[in-house]
Design goal:
It contains nine helices and 16 strands. It has 256 residues and is α/β, with parallel strands linked by helices. The longest helix has 12 residues, at 236-247. The two termini are 19 Å apart. The strands form five sheets. Strands 1, 4, 7, 8, 10, 13, 14 and 15 form an eight-stranded mixed sheet that branches. A two-stranded antiparallel ribbon has the order 2-3. It has helices at residues 15-18, 33-43, 57-65, 67-70, 107-113, 115-118, 136-146, 210-218, 236-247, and strands at residues 3-7, 27-28, 31-32, 48-53, 72-77, 83-89, 95-100, 123-127, 130-132, 150-155, 162-167, 170-176, 185-186, 190-192, 221-225, 230-232.
């Protein structure tokens, strides 16, 4: 099953680094968050990726162009017609298709642009800026049993700010906003049937608007509830948190 990763956005909310590179290429532990996402999928046996590039997409292409070289022991013999000998390959068994889906194309438009690489098979889809410890096997099993056209992973992220416990006009305590205080949101990590392509328009199509809203109204949109770890990298604060988890050996998504 192929995995589409949306990696073409501008990343304006983390402009401290995204002015130099696309957000999926911002590093956590010396590797782009895109790599972390791919490693996670690969640990479940999903090795065929289609990356929807856009803003500074050449950075992603150059990264993968050199990926095999950077992860192998290599001898460059300039005395023998510039012969290159690879002694040891430690790269992952990935097949990576990089597609320029436009600078300002919206999410639905990007997915529509890579339809020819998917064909008539179900596929997975996620955003290039979020990690978690989702059970992808359970997600897929639920989707296949449900008969839905799309199943998304729902998460309860909690709040970025602490909340006050109040009794009348008296504050009785401070606490972090719990997950249970908020509703479910789309955390990505979706499974989709090829029928979804009939609902996608041109470059201005936003997947999360008319296509998914329409499926929801018709009863074709499923949710896989995930109560474990999930974190997107919208801001520098998010990046710092992910970096701390990685450096401390506490990254829940590191299952490889």
């Amino acid at each position: 099953m192929k995995v589409i990763i949306l990696a073409g956005g501008l990343g304006t909310r983390i402009s401290e680094e995204s002015y130099l590179k696309p957000k999926p290429m911002i590093e956590i532990g010396d590797q782009p968050i895109l790599w972390h996402i791919m490693k996670y999928y690969s640990s479940f046996g999903f090795h065929d990726f289609i990356i929807c590039c856009g803003y500074k997409g050449h950075v992603i292409k150059e990264y993968f162009a050199d990926y095999y070289l950077h992860r192998s022991d290599v001898t460059f013999d300039f005395s023998d017609q510039n012969r290159v000998t690879v002694h040891q390959n430690v790269a992952e068994p990935w097949r990576v298709t990089l597609v320029d889906t436009g600078l300002m194309t919206q999410t639905g438009g990007r997915v529509k642009r890579v339809q020819k690489y998917i064909g008539d098979e179900p596929f997975m889809l996620t955003y290039g800026d979020g990690v978690g410890d989702i059970d992808l096997n359970a997600l897929l099993a639920q989707h296949q049993a449900s008969g839905k056209i799309v199943t998304l992973t729902g998460i309860q992220p909690g709040g970025r700010f602490g909340v006050l416990d109040v009794d009348g006009q008296t504050v009785t305590g401070f606490r972090e906003k719990a997950k249970e205080d908020g509703g479910w949101i789309n955390g990505g990590f979706m499974v989709l049937e090829p029928e979804v392509f009939t609902r996608l328009g041109g470059d201005s199509c936003v997947l999360e608007r008319e296509p998914l809203e329409g499926l929801a109204q018709e009863g074709w949109l499923g949710i896989y509830r995930h109560n474990g770890f999930w974190q997107c990298m919208d801001t520098q604060r998010d990046k710092t948190r992910l970096e701390e988890l990685w450096q401390n050996g506490d990254a829940p998504w590191r299952v490889w």
